[in-house]
C-alpha cells in the first residue's frame, strides 16, 4: 500500500539496487542472450521496476548505458490501471470474514471514489498510470528481449483486460510478447493453480 500512497519512497531503494545491478552485470546491453530475469508481482513489482528504469538511467556515468542489461520480463498479475472495484478488493485484503468485508465495504468504496476524484482533479498523481506506461517505453526499455504476462480473469485486484490491452500495445511497439491466461486463479496465486505450468512458463521465457 505504501508504494501507492507514497511512491516517492521507492526511488531511494531502487537507487541502491541500480548501483548493485550495474556492478554485477557487465554484459553489453545489446547482448542477444539475457543476463537478467525480471520477475515482478502485482503493482508493487510494477512500481519497483519503473523506479529501477529511472534510477538505472539517472545513476549512469558518461560511458554507461542508461538501459538495463539485456533481460526478459515476467509480469505476474500486472500491470493495471485504477478502477474503483479493484481498489476496494485491494483494500479488503486481510479481512477474513464476510461480515468484516460487509462492514468495511461502504468505507472502502467511499475512499476509492474520493481517491479517483482526486486523481481526476489532479490533486493526487496517478502513479498506477505512470507505471503502466513505463513498461512499454521502447527507447528506455529496448534491451528487453521478450516478456510474458501471467494473469487471470478471476483476479479481483488487477483488471485482466488492462493486462491484455497492455500486451497488445507492447506488441504493436515491437516488444516480443506472450500471454499466459490462467482460469480461476486469484491475484498472484497462479503458481498455486498449476505449479508445473507456471515454472515451464518461467523456463521458456528465460531460455527463449
UniProtKB/TrEMBL annotation:
One of the record's GO cellular component terms: nuclear outer membrane
Q: Does the keyword Cytoplasm apply?
A: no
Per its UniProt record, what Pfam families does this chain match?
DUF829
- The keyword Membrane appears for this protein: yes
Which UniProt keywords are given for this protein, alphabetically ordered?
A: Membrane, Nucleus, Transmembrane, Transmembrane helix
Q: Where in the cell is it found?
A: Nucleus outer membrane
TM stretches of this protein: 102-124
Per UniProt, what is the membrane topology?
Single-pass membrane protein
Q: Which SUPFAM superfamilies match?
A: alpha/beta-Hydrolases (SSF53474)
Protein family per UniProt: Belongs to the TMEM53 family.
* Protein name per Swiss-Prot or TrEMBL: DUF829-domain-containing protein
- Species whose genome carries this gene: Periconia macrospinosa
The top of its lineage is: Eukaryota, Fungi, Dikarya, Ascomycota, Pezizomycotina
